[in-house]
Amino acid sequence: MGLENKNIGLIGTGKMGSSLIRGILKSNIVDSSNVYASDVYNQSLENLQNELGINVSNDNKQTVINSDIIILAVKPQVIRKVIAGFKDEMTEDKLVISIAAGVPISEIEDELDSGSKLIRVMPNIAATVGESSSAICPGENTTNEDVENALEIFKTVGTARVVSEDLMDAFTGVSGSGPAYIFPVIEAMADGAVYEGLDRKNALTFAAQTVLGAAKLVLETDSHPAELKDMVTSPGGTTIRGVHELEEHGIRSAFMDAVIESSRRSRELGK
Fold first, then answer.
1. Of 10, 48, 78, 181, which residue is 20 to 30 A from 86 by alpha carbon distance?
2. How far, in Å, CA of 263 to CA of 225, rounded?
3. How many CA atoms lie within 13 A of 217 on its CB side?
4. What is the DSSP letter of 122?
């Protein structure tokens, strides 16, 4: 059935919530009149209403009453309080999507009535520029249509895939925390270019675009990274000299360990 006739509500309009609203409207999956948002911050709501023409309120209950799909874009430490505030307005046909980091499905289900439809989603910071990687974990009461709707929503800010919740820690290690591994890489590449004489602004632009281009090659050609590496690595050339230097400094093990340790810490925090 799709989202054409659905009302989508956002509780929380911080960076992630507002990014989702913009992605949804930019993709034209629903009209602005079908989007409802609530927050405790009036200025955020006023800015979104003026910019996008959505419906806004300080009352989460109104957002829930008016919406078929409710996205909880709030901090993990307040999610119980937020759910308690609108719980009485929930009906069995409404879908709740939580993007509260580290909060498992079971914990949210405990706060909602038995039988509530719930999906847990973890996007990453790149949602703010429409390039997120989002993991979608359906609760047991959801339907295939619910999952498809969640995928459609989160694909408006990047890519989205369904994973089982027991793999969410692995997702955290590679994608949730992943951008923070790449920012120092971009900075270091730019520093090397500055060392060799490029000005800082151009060095950062070239380094960031190089990372972006490499990622798009992997995603759009469906080629293995090793195959793509070989395409630009000529015998005795400049690239193999650079690759050798990276291997000398243990680049592979460093990145693997970063993902593994981040995943382990995610499991620790979830206990």
1. 48
2. 23
3. 14
4. E
159-184 pLDDT, tens digit each: 999 999 999 999 999 999 999 999 99
Per-residue pLDDT averaged across 105-111, rounded?
89
The verdict on pTM exceeding 0.85 is yes
Amino acid at 61: K
Closest among 106, 62, 113, 58 to 84, alpha carbons compared: 113
Q: 121 near 99, Cβ under 8 Å?
A: yes
- The answer to whether 19 touches 25, Cβ cutoff 8 Å, is no
Distance CA 29, CA 8 (A): 10
The per-residue DSSP string of 2-19 comes to -STT--EEEE--SHHHHH
| CA 199 – CA 115 distance, rounded (Å) | 59
Residue 82 is encoded by which pair of tokens? 């937020």
pLDDT for res 271: 65
Q: How far apart are CA 195 and CA 96, in angstroms?
A: 51
